[in-house]
């Protein structure tokens, strides 16, 4: 897949939760070979947007279209791109009743005709790709892994079907700085070596500037996206709220004078 090819289009999308509008009129694209970070203050709808993009939540208005190979498919339609989008959730979401290896092989068992030996070979390869090189990890229980190892295992599982798009929800949340930096390196390797596009929900500024090609800023006050572009460019020349967020780590809305 050529870098820059549009994989996904978000058209006039609105986000709601608990009867409240979080965002409206969202319009942007996800391109092959890029890391697109979704950022904004707490409660702006970052994770909700990601769930819409992977088909877990249905929009009240707007569409999410998978556009790879010149064909448009509605992510929420009758032919969703299940195999083309890999997802790693914030808590990892590994099945606790399975070993790490069984977690890895499950997508191959469900969606391919590979025999057990080939499923294991590919699972061990993806674990190694994610930095889990110890062969013992394959037979370990998820509960026996550290937080950083669980994150890596979740990313490895998301890669099992070789998706052109990988969606990561707060992959660095709860990790120490060294482990977080190693995850950043992993994301960059996935982009450069595997060629996967990555959509990343994050609040970690260090990770943001380390890995993101573009940043989509969801404004918690305006209830829409107010900026889209390279992180350094938005930090230096973006709207005031975006520059404040990218230099201080959070945006505090200005209150109107009484």
Q: Would you spell out the secondary-structure blueprint of this structure?
A:
Blueprint: E1 6-17, E2 20-31, E3 35-39, H1 46-53, E4 63-66, E5 73-74, E6 85-88, H2 100-111, H3 116-129, H4 147-158, E7 165-169, H5 177-194, E8 197-201, H6 205-211, E9 214-219, E10 224-229, H7 231-237, H8 240-248
Parallel strand pairs: 3-8, 3-9, 6-7, 7-8
Antiparallel strand pairs: 1-2, 1-4, 4-5, 9-10
Helix pairs in contact: 2-3, 2-4, 3-4, 5-6, 7-8
Largest sheet strand order = 6-7-8-3-9-10
- In DSSP terms, counting alpha (H) and pi (I) runs of 4 or more, how many helices? 8
How much helix is in the residues? 25-40%
CATH class, named: Alpha Beta
In CATH, the homologous superfamily goes by the name: P-loop containing nucleotide triphosphate hydrolases
Beta-strand percentage range: 15-25%
The CATH topology label is: Rossmann fold
Number of domains: 1
Q: What best-fitting shape do the alpha-carbon axes yield?
A: globular
Overall pLDDT score: 89
Poorly predicted runs of 5 or more residues: 250-258
Query: Which architecture per CATH?
Result: 3-Layer(aba) Sandwich
User: Total strand count, please?
Assistant: 10
Order of helices and strands: EEEHEEEHHHEHEHEEHH
Largest sheet: 6 strands, mixed
């Amino acid at each position: 897949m050529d870098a820059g090819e549009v994989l996904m289009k978000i058209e006039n999308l609105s986000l709601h939760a608990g009867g409240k509008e979080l965002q409206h009129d969202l319009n942007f694209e996800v391109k092959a070979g890029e890391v697109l970070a979704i950022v904004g203050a707490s409660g702006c709808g970052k994770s909700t947007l990601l769930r819409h993009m992977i088909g877990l939540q249905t929009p009240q208005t707007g569409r999410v279209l998978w556009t790879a190979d010149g064909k448009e498919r509605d992510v929420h339609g009758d032919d969703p791109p299940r195999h083309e989008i890999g997802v790693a959730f914030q808590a990892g979401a590994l099945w606790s009743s399975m070993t790490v290896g069984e977690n890895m092989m499950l997508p191959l068992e469900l969606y391919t005709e590979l025999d057990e030996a080939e499923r294991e070979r590919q699972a061990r390869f993806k674990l190694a790709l994610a930095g889990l090189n110890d062969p013992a990890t394959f037979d370990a229980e998820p509960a026996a892994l550290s937080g950083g190892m669980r994150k890596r295992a979740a990313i490895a599982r998301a890669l099992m079907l070789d998706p052109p798009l990988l969606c990561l929800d707060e992959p660095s949340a709860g990790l120490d700085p060294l482990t977080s930096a190693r995850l950043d390196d992993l994301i960059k390797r996935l982009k450069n070596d595997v060629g996967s596009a990555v959509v990343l929900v994050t609040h970690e500024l260090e990770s943001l500037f380390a890995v993101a090609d573009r940043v989509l800023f969801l404004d918690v006050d305006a209830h829409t996206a107010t900026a889209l572009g390279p992180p350094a460019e938005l930090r230096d020349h973006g709207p005031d709220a975006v520059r404040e967020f990218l230099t201080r780590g959070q945006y505090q809305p200005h209150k109107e004078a009484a």
